[in-house]
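Entry 14: structure prediction run for Transmembrane protein 236. Input pasted below.
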Amino acid sequence: MPSGKTVKLILYEVLQFAALIIPVLVVMERFAIIIHNVKGQDLTAYWLVVAISIAYVTSMTLVVWVPLKYLVLKQRINTQWRPTALVYIILCTFPCFALIITSSKVQVDSGHRSDQFTELPVSLVLFSLICVDIIERIRPCRLTGQSDSLDPDLNIPPYPILTHLEQVTTVSGQLHSDETQSLPETRNGRVSGRWQDNTGSPSPSTLSSRAPSTTYLYSSRPQSYPGRLGFLWRRDERSQVFVDSFLFWLDTVEMVRVAGEPPVFYSAWVFPIYIFAFLSTLRIAVTPNNPLLSSAGVALQDLPFFIIRFALLIVFGYVTPVLYPLKNALVSLTFVYFTLLSKLRIFRGQSMF
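Run finished. Output tokens:
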């Protein structure tokens, strides 16, 4: 009976391998249909493309994918980048996007417009990419029982839990009390013992640290809410990974969707759209906790996407919602401001807001 880790490993590898070969076979078969129609119902051209797709899948599996998985699983090196994801977008996403662009060019040159790759192939390619990203993120977790933490920071709740309140005397009040106690009292010509025992009073540095404050401690686990609706407050990092992954790729999905519009697909704009969409997928090679991911997102996605969408709105009208270029512009501007401009002396003045 195989262990749970072995079953999980086999499941992940089968899913990743399926996400690798299925999009390539589907897109190439769709491309073979286009060649078949353009060549005047020529079956030879159709089966030639199908044979090339099978040969490509077999060669890349034996030459690249299997040796890479062996090295990655054997060494188990925890780095700031993911070699499996990088090889995946080179072996699968890149040829799929290239075939979609080629199909547009072939149909425009021949005057035969029959297939825009609008739904199944493009959605399958992007869904497989998201699945690979989810598997790479959720791999450190176990599938049953309570979740292992993917990131120590994920255990910190996003809200403060008031655990302790301590009333501390103010500095002025403490000084006033000490001065009252340290005044000399003369009784029968002799100084009281209070004056002589002044060495035990707290130092000014100790007094300055006793500012009035309220202590808020962050608990390592969220509050538990009893009752029948207590499950509504439960949170699991494994389910959050699925949400984060789909939101992470939502901008790229929308950009590729715009390329499926007939006026855009049968024009030269399909080339920059798919080229920059592929460049944005390179972010999958960076781990989610890598600080480089923020700058890579602006350089590979938000800034070029804003330029392309702004141009598309001018040329084709509202083929894409205005919300997306606004998002790209705001993300780029805030990144430049908080990482570069806020470091300048003019923005560090205490008199400014």
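Notes: Residues 150-165, 191-222 have pLDDT under 50 and may be disordered. Will compare against the previous run tomorrow.
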